Amino acid sequence: MRNLQLFSCGSYHLLRGIFAIDADTGDIWLISDSLKLFCYKELGKTCKEHVNLSLEANLESSNAVISLDYVLDLESVYFALRNGDIYKFSVESDELDNIGSVACGLECAVWSPDQEIIVLVSTEGKVVMLSKNCDPISESNLLTGEFGEASPIVLGWGKRETQFKGKAGKYVDLKDKDSQESVNILTSDDRKVRICWRGDGQFFAISFVNISKGLREIKIFTRECVLHATSESVAGIGQSLSWKPSANLITTNRTSHRQEIVFFEKNGLRYGEFSLPCHVTEYFVREVEWNSNSTILLVLLEPLISDTKTLVQLWTCNNAHWYLKQEICFPSVSSPTLIRWNTIQPNTLHILTQSGSYLTYELRTVVTQSNEYDNWIAVIDGCRVLLSPFRDLTVPPPMSSCSVELSRPVIEVIFGREEYKDRILCLLSNYTIIELKHSKSDGNINNSEFLDKTGFYSLSKPFHFRDNTTDISYHTIRHIQWITVYLLLALSYSSDAKEHKIELYNILSEEREIVLVSVVTTIKPILTLISCSDSLAVEFIDGEVNRVSCTNETLSLQPWVNLLYPSHRISIARFSGEEHILGFTVNGRLFLDTIELCSNATSYYLHSHFLLITTSSHYLHSINLSTPIYELPAILPTQSHTTNDAVRRVERGAEIITAVSNDSKVVLQMPRGNLEAIHPRALILTIIAKLLDNREYSVAFAILRRQRINMNLFHDYNPEIFISSIHDFITQVHQPQFLNIFITELSDQDICTTMYPNMKRHVTNINSENKVNSVCDIMVETCEKANNTNLYLLPILTALIKRSPSQLGEVLTRIKNIPVTSKTSQEDALKYISLLIDMKQLYKVALGTYDFDIMLLVAQNSNMDPKEYLPFMNNLKSLEENYRAYFIDCHLCKYESALVHILKCRGREEECIAFINKHELYSKALEQIPTGDGELIQRVSLAYGNWLCSKEKYPEAGLVFIQIGELALALKAYRKSDNYHRVLSLALQLNLPKDSFHKIVYELVSKLKSINEIMTTSQILCEYTQDYEDAIFLLIENNIFNEAYRLIYKYLRIDLLETHFKPKLTETAQNMLSMLIESRTIVEKYVSRLEIVLTNKLEEGQTYFEEGGDIRDHEFFSEQSSVTGQSQTNSISSKGSKSSSKSARGSRSRKKQERKKYRLKEGSAHEDIALLEEIRGVVVRVDQIQDDLNIILDLLIITNQRLLARDLQTNARATITYLASIIPKTWHKHRLITISLSLVHEDGIISSPNLCTGIINVLKGGDLFPAQTDVEISEPLIRSIKWEISYLLSS
């Protein structure tokens, strides 16, 4: 689908001779016919003569140069002469050396593609292979009669001509007949030997005239100069030879009744051919040459008739069809003598003519298409123009919807714009222009018209360029733009003045001429000229882009933008309403002005709403043209094909051919030539949004259905508009099956935020909760209001089923009520809903209606066996109505509904109670039983209470028993609970005997003692058993001295003061005194040891850092935590392993491990942490004593133990005061020292700023390493409680 367009050209004057190109610098090395070596730099601008071979090598002009090459690695020029001499000219030393010679003379010499080997053919028919230093490698005989090592093996399956040929059989006879013709040498053959290499340098082919056989043969050799194969004998093989670099095809020409280009495989077998559009009496093929990437085949045709132009034709192949894309005509006096493709730039052609003109042509592949007019694409195929409208259909090449045959090969096609969009200009190879016009002036054609006829016709006469307007030789006019009906704009190059021109031409319809009216010249080479709407722009070779304005047929240039790199293709793009330049370089970099959008682009296309880009990573990116410029650089790197509708995977090597404007169709061409039409999701969503805004629901539905886009988009794009336009939606979509598709796809999620987050909509913060139910309800309501309700029956049923929960009962009722005259029968409706819901489930719903007509209708239209459902239904008919409903509910496991129906059945109380007990429906039954049926309530409640007892819900069971007056059962239930109040009250209500009552009381006392309810137990003993002594003993044993002292005097048990109360009080006070003295001693000991430990750690850490150690390797840093005592590590893996091991251990094991880790043993790694834990435990115990101190002191004074009380108060005050002062100091010092060892910089060196920050943080009460703290060893606090008695202070 692509054409070859002349991108740029140049013409320079050189001497006649043979040339070679330095691919690195572009310098041209030339040996003239007078045997002088020249170097042309800067494309012929400077010239330097290096060697006169006639003088320095004593060569005569008769010794023709047969080969000239520039070897890049050696920076030397190698050339071979026909007399057999091989010379090397060193560019660095400027010296000429004769490095070898073949005595018998040479016919041909060619270097390998990697310039490591040179192959020579001598006049004696010897093939000699030399290294680049001209050391012999191998030699072979070219004139041998052997076939080669790839000789075919005969298996004895008969002769070739007797074998079945299949469909191609009718053509085989013609080929065989051609082979059997007289195999003679063509008269036009120059009888020269030609050598060509395969692109990888592993094989080379030699074409030569075999005098003994009287024909031209092709022999294929390996890199080791071993004969591989010989071509089969084909009549009329010509002199040309070229090996396709990327394939095993050897190309040559053949002349029979027509001129042909034929191909041979490396095994010598003929592979295929194509015909050239010239007569054998007019032209013969002199040379064929492939470019370096195997995309263009050059054919040089020499005339057989005098005063006839020499033709250079450029062919491309796609889908096994050969297209003639360009034809360059040369006068006989300036016919090409040497043609070379550039090895670095595959599409650059170098030609040297007889007149000494050195021409360079740079070609590019372009898609020629109309501007938004059915997206017509024109493909050049020689004299034919193939036309296809891709808006309506996708025509795979080489086919087309129509074609136009012209008199000469077409080299460029220009489509008209706007008011003349139905016209096409064709530039022919003889530089005449033919105008094609559609047969209908309005340009509107339907499918049948352009399939049946071309739809175009040509005007009577062609347009000619006026002779005095421009130099039109050598393809100098290019990039023609049709800017108005009568004005053309083009680029040209003047070889005489070395100027590049922008020319404006006027089309004179009556004179049939094209006249130059304005020109802008520049020395700076111009790369390309483009037009878009009313904008024109040119790009120069340095990347500068100028805007071209045409006022009163006068051209002028205004600066626009400077691209970062020269681009071989530019376009004018409108982003956010502003015009910008898109530049696409040869290495795949895409720029918007100076912003790089993509560095691996393979093609791009400007759609009406998007910029489409394909990349070498095989993705198609769609960038909305409304995107702000500043967001563009970040779009492509963040686009992901898994989460973004703007990205789509494409086939490897796919490139964009066209994208239909205001549509979603994008046409891609694969490397093999076939086309694929796709619809990128981003383009579809844009089209859908436009249709939904215009409420064109019918067209939108067709697109959504065809492209398999979620139908929720109708609602989620704009819920308010859709709900208000639901009638229009139903009317436009109309078809019930389409409405069913929409309803079945409804879901409560907002797909504009989940599936299509990049779709732009006018509303935000959509609440999609309960969306399905609301849409289904309004669909049902709107369909029911329609005049033809029966038409929308199935959508109504679908909406009722789609609701949550589904209204299946309503669905069955509607199906039952379908009239006989309706187009949709009951059976059809049931068959339809069977696709939406399981028929077994529907049958259960039918049973739940208790309607035999509905039951039978569903059963008959399901897959159920009548032997199963008919007996079941007959049995139901025999039952009473309420009991039948009960039976059906039990069958459907609807037990609560079954309970309602069984309660209505008289005489079935036993069955009812059994049903309640079986399904544990006690609460529901008590709600449904009439209040007048007391007996049933009594029986059900009794069963309910027993069931609660079995579930160990004793308080609830007691309440149930109390409700029905079963106090004994209630007491039994409450005795198993902890509610002693209810037990005692029920026992008193029942008037139990004293022994039984006391038994219950002592049972409660035992239970309360076990849960440490001492005060309650004492109260019960006093109130219900009058056992005052046991009550007092219980209080004294548990150190509740105040209450015990009160009861002693209340119940006049003064004797217990001396026997029990005073001894226990004295013992408790002495124990508290001992504990206080011991606690202070322990704390003093541990605080002293902690200071030693912290001082040692600080000294060790400082010594370690001074010696240059890494703090991350230090034992303290890797194991010690300043706050938690947890083991800390620096590696993530260690943390992970620690976490997994901790998760594997139970809490008991973890506590055991913690105890093992922090030991008080002197010198242990965690001794300071263990000391802190022990100190904290002592402080907590001392702090708890304060709660009881005041009571103990008060009772000691009352019982005349003032000395003991004073000692206790004095020691308590001293111990608490000491702890309150020493604890903050100890914890503060520990934190400071720990911080100095733990706060380090990332490089493992102590960081003073971090140290200071950490210390300040701790002083303010902050945490150290809060993210790593598991169990905090917090600083213990001593509460300030007033417990001292001033009386003791004064005494």
From TrEMBL:
Q: Which UniProt keywords apply?
A: Cytoplasm, Nucleus, tRNA processing
Coiled-coil ranges per UniProt = none
Q: Which residues form the ELP1 three-helical bundle domain?
A: 1055-1224
What subcellular locations does the record give?
Answer: Cytoplasm; Nucleus
Q: Where is the ELP1 N-terminal second beta-propeller domain?
A: 379-657
Query: So, what pathway does this thing act in?
Result: tRNA modification; 5-methoxycarbonylmethyl-2-thiouridine-tRNA biosynthesis
Q: List GO molecular-function terms, semicolon-separated.
A: tRNA binding
Give a yes or no for keyword Cytoplasm in this entry: yes
Composition-biased stretches, type Polar residues, lie in 1119-1130
Q: Where is the composition biased (Low complexity)?
A: 1131-1144
Q: Where is the composition biased (Basic residues)?
A: 1145-1159
InterPro entries xrefs: A-sol_ELP1, Beta-prop_ELP1_1st, Beta-prop_ELP1_2nd, Elp1, HB_ELP1, TPR_ELP1
| Similarity comment | Belongs to the ELP1/IKA1 family.
Q: What is this protein called?
A: Elongator complex protein 1
Organism encoding this protein: Oopsacas minuta
